[in-house]
UniProtKB/TrEMBL annotation:
It comes from the Bacteria. Pfam families: Transgly. Gene3D superfamilies: Biosynthetic peptidoglycan transglycosylase-like (1.10.3810.10). PANTHER family: BINDING PROTEIN TRANSPEPTIDASE, PUTATIVE-RELATED, PEPTIDOGLYCAN GLYCOSYLTRANSFERASE. InterPro entries: Glyco_trans_51, Glycosyltr_51/Transpeptidase, Lysozyme-like_dom_sf, PBP_transglycosylase. Keywords: Transferase. Residues 48-191 form the Glycosyl transferase family domain. Pathway: Cell wall biogenesis; peptidoglycan biosynthesis. This is Transglycosylase domain-containing protein.
Length: 234
């Protein structure tokens, strides 16, 4: 019985890879490698602000990682067979891939808008996530995550969102501002963000040692910016 299960699993994995490669039209590693080494990876809108990762505040970069899996920069690349096996087993130890998953969502809409629908999306996104991490550096993926994600109020990326929500540049953001922006990645951008959503990020900043208790308390006491209800960005 064990050998039959192993054969079936291998067959399922090979078929999934073949299906994504030849049927879905998921962008290849060569196509990803041909994307610009600098600037927006997956935004097709002219005039969208872009800030290199090295020029972003350290707390912003650290908090983005801490809120999405602290080992993002160092864990092994996502591999489709291991991901499928973890999903089948319900293995809670599978790597946290929320940053890569968000970049996958952003990129597939731009690079292959017709490739994935319905159940195909789940297969295609798993394949593409692995290709992203095998082709691009983690820093490049994180940079795309922070620059290419829709954050509400008609803004794409943290630089535009900082201006829209706080009328500030990234360099002028306070602890509570950074926590708010990172929380916007985790909640629908058209929905009002409650204090509890922002405060979860503040607590993670505290646990990671980025801020102290006094800074955390002051950040939690700060008011939230108003959120205009807008339709989801296409």
């Amino acid at each position: 019985m064990l050998s039959i299960a192993v054969v079936l699993r291998i067959y399922a994995e090979v078929y999934t890879i073949w299906y994504a490669e030849y049927h879905l039209g998921v962008p290849t590693e060569a196509e990803l490698a041909a994307r610009p080494a600098n600037g927006h990876l997956c935004v097709d809108e002219a005039g969208t602000p872009y800030v290199p990762l090295a020029d972003m505040p350290l707390h912003l970069r650290q908090t983005a990682i801490a809120s999405n899996g602290a080992d993002f920069l160092t864990r092994p690349n996502l591999m489709l067979p291991a991901m499928l096996a973890a999903l089948v087993k319900g293995d809670g130890r599978r790597p946290d891939s929320r940053i890569t998953f968000q970049v996958t969502r952003n990129c597939l809409h731009v690079l292959a808008p017709e490739c994935c629908r319905g159940l195909d999306w789940h297969v295609g996104s798993l394949v593409f996530m692995g290709r992203l991490e095998r082709t691009l550096s983690r820093e490049r993926i994180l940079e795309s995550y922070l620059n290419d994600t829709y954050l509400g109020r008609g803004t794409v990326g943290v630089a535009a969102a900082a201006g829209a929500y706080f009328d500030k540049s990234l360099a002028d953001l306070k602890v509570e501002d950074i926590a708010f922006l990172i929380a916007r990645f985790r909640y629908p951008p058209y929905r009002r963000l409650e204090h509890s959503g922002r405060d979860v990020i503040i607590d993670r900043m505290l646990s990671a040692g980025f801020i102290d208790q006094a800074q955390a308390a002051a950040a939690k006491a700060a008011p939230l910016p108003a959120i205009d209800r807008q339709p989801r960005h296409p």
